[in-house]
Write a structure and sequence with these properties.
With about 230 residues, the chain is of the alpha/beta class. It is about 50% helix and about 15% strand. The protein contains eleven helices and six strands.
Length: about 230
């Protein structure tokens, strides 16, 4: 059962999300909040698997709430998905750097939202195609970050190769096929890279790979949307 917390200052929006998700087998909405501060408090109380978090809210906005959730060690397994009406704005980068697992537009199709919940729960990077194009365009205009580049020295050559493939949107099974290793070994390399780089999840690995210069943006990743849900690892 995937436990979800909905945080949005619009009651009608919360009701719509709850009705959609409560109708799905395997998903349970454990609580909802109307502002970021209440959202953080409910996240600490319920420790959900996924938080659907609006960007613009009273008391505490979505970026601030994401930072507090990501900084709380008790919420290490909580994955934040930012929702907004505005896809091409400054919130994209702030949200990902704050610790968000993904960034979706509120006009997403119901089936895609449900799939996104499953992807976020697995810790996979979750970016809509429009957000991915904007993210890549931003990194094209930036020089590599020296601090992030130096951090790559902690990785083995194998882990760097895995990091590059994660940044290009490949799931563990695809990484395994590309590198001719088992999916479990691919997952282990991803986990070790996350630990060494201090990354909360795969979304953070994607940002790290681009900011360090390990990946040079030359167009959209091979899979600009989210991957299909994979079966649980043995």
């Amino acid at each position: 059962m995937i436990r979800v917390l909905i945080v949005d200052d619009q009651a009608l929006m919360r009701a719509g999300f709850r009705a959609l998700l409560d109708a799905e087998e395997g998903i349970e909405v454990v609580a909802e909040a109307g502002d970021g501060q209440q959202g953080v408090e409910l996240a600490r109380r319920h420790v959900p698997d996924v938080v659907l978090l609006d960007v613009q809210m009273p008391v505490l906005d979505g970026i601030g709430a994401t930072r507090l959730i990501a900084a709380d060690p008790r919420l290490a397994g909580v994955h934040v998905v930012i929702l907004t009406n505005y896809g091409l704005d400054e919130y994209v980068f702030d949200a990902l750097r704050a610790g968000a697992s993904g960034f979706l537009l509120k006009d997403i199709e119901p089936a895609d939202l449900v799939q996104a919940i499953h992807v976020a729960r697995r810790g996979d990077a979750l970016l809509s195609p429009a957000i991915t194009r904007r993210l890549i365009g931003e990194f094209v205009s930036r020089p590599p970050d020296a601090t992030h580049a130096a951090g790559l020295e902690a990785l083995t050559n194998r882990e760097r190769e895995v990091l590059a493939l994660v940044a290009r949107g490949l799931a563990n099974d695809e990484i395994a096929g590309r590198m001719v290793i088992s999916p479990l070994t691919a997952k282990t390399h991803v986990s070790r890279a996350m630990t060494k780089l201090g990354a909360r999840d795969r979304a953070q690995l994607v940002v790290y790979a681009y900011e360090s210069g390990l990946i040079t943006p030359k167009g959209s990743p091979q899979r600009p949307s989210w991957p299909a849900p994979a079966p649980p690892a043995p």
